[in-house]
Design goal:
Keywords: Coiled coil, Exonuclease, Hydrolase, Nuclease, RNA-binding. By secondary structure, the protein is an alpha/beta fold. The protein has 26 helices and 31 strands.
Amino acid sequence: QEKSSRLSAALFGEDCEISHDQLYELLKYAALGKGHNATQPSWCRIYHQSHLAGVVVVVLPEMSQLHFYKFYLQFKHLRKVFRHRFTLTPSANFLASLCGEGANLKPQNTAQGSTSTSSECIPKSSDLQCDPIILKYGEKKQGLTSYILTSEEQKKNDYPMKGSPGCQGYVHTECDQQRTDSSPLFGLDCEMCLTAKGNEVTRVSLVDAQGQCLLNELVKPESTVVNYRTRFSGITKKMLLPVKTRLPDIQTRLKKMLPPDAVLVGHSLNADLQALEMIHPSVIDTSLLFARNEGRRFKLKFLARAVLGKEIQCEERLGHDPAEDARASLELAQFFIEQGPAKVAELNLETLLTTEKLAEVSQNKAAALQPQGCRVQKQLNEPPHLSKPCFLECLQVTGQKPLLLGRQELDSSGLGQSNLSASNKQILQRALEDVPLSTFSIIQFSLGPEYITSHLLAGLCEQVRSKLTDMLTIYAGPFEESFCLKSVKKEFGRCGPIRSLTVITETYQPYVCIQYEVLEAAQLAVESLDGAEVAGSCIKVQRPVSAAALDCDVLIKELELDVENEGVIYVAGLKKSVTEMDLQEEFSQLEDLETLFLPKDLQSGKHRNCCFLKFQKSESALAALEVINGWTVKGSKLRSRNALTSGHLWRWIWQMNHSNEKQGRNISHEKMEQLSDAEQDLRKKMKKLDQHIKKLYRSLQNNTLCVVLFPGMN
């Protein structure tokens, strides 16, 4: 029997945010397979890619996560059929980021009469304000301490740290003195070979701030070498035969050579320190220093050529020279510190890289003409000259016909011509006819300019924030005049993290108003404490009564049935001293437990007193609910229920409550009333869009990868 293609994405909790680069990885591999340097995405896996019938990307350009949850009940088909859902990071040039690496460059049209298939990509000066280097560091020069990775950054980028899993037995450099802007810099680089143990060091180089080589030593691995990786490492079996130096010798020498306030510099230095099995507290990583958008990194070879004007890792030489690489990393860091972020941003490294890649594409083509009939048929919101045409060009070169349908046509000159008369219904009809003939399609459905005004968006944002606040808020009471507030807070705190608690005294007897951080906590309080005795009183627990909250029960029910929450349960009542390791150990006996997610406060980084458990089967989650309710962990009694918020939604709710609170409340009551007509129209449009997607989806062949994007306007 023919194998069916499928997508597996194990992201959960705070990892449910993907970059455009990661989306590009997915689409490129799905469309091209292992050809044209396409590899399996780093964040998910496509099984049996060769059996894919096609890739369809539906773009709803003016809509974002805000629209999806504002009109959640209207998107009936979308939320029930599409099993994987992720938050997409913003992009300045959405279509370019979808189709190629030059996502942040504004394409410039070729000169009139030119027959070139690509164009030079020169960012405008105003774009420098959006440069990731400026966004990360600002424009002013700073001392070297501003560029040392924080503990959080080291953890995120897999640096060996004290107490981290897998770092037992690692040697600490003991360079624990306070760093200043005068602390000495040292460049470090290692070459590794593959052994039965994994990656092991075969050569280590250390250079000082003047570029002098202090250490350049061959190291004999402890385990049997499986692959010398000579092409990259330059190491051969013959070179290592007479070597007596072992890893502990190198560790001892490095500890002696480094002063107590040393700052190590390297390119993706985490790999070198992991191979050295050493922990060092202060590092500058040039692969992160020269920041790019969406998690991508420049290669050291490119940075050395573009920034320093040096050629390293030359192809005619066998393998890399670690001393040369260590020196290049060090000089790059020195250049960045001396010149400052503004000067580095002015180098327009993205432009240089794109120009190089375009030149390579042209050379590789050797002036071969594209096959007839492989020209892109339709264009969305950008001119046809994408900053990196590689993705669509590769499809055309392989004889495939990418289909782009939207509200813009291509004329004979290749420039985008508005075709605003094309309705979503006409686009759908064309898609139903043409998508089966194409292996890669991008279909755009638009709302229209009248629905993307800042006034309307601000109003929708306030409505969603207000509704979320109502859903997160409960009222409890009545209590006795002299009730113990501490007891009430403790009891309701067992349902989940409390954002605020206030006592209401305007009533005949006191009540409390509690706003939670997560929807599950508020729902758990309503379900478990309504009618219970708290602080000596039999109380009623309810949500606020408002027009916006009238469909709250329907929303809660639909969220609980959401495919994203299948097999996921919420557990509350954890003590803040409980660690993730404690919970892994405590819940290890639960059958089919797949993942544990412990939410953190996005400002303080401290974990909350609740967690989410994801199970492989829904039945296992239901069985776990019965076991966990009333379970005691480290003296704390647990409460649990089915999950309502997937990882990306939990994060978004937190951001809505903390970031947009003041913005939304600036909208006047009169303006909010004016939104009602537009909102009614939008509700109908969303329902219609959901039906369009349903029709398109049902027309697709089996084994088609379908992605729906809400990129938003900013």
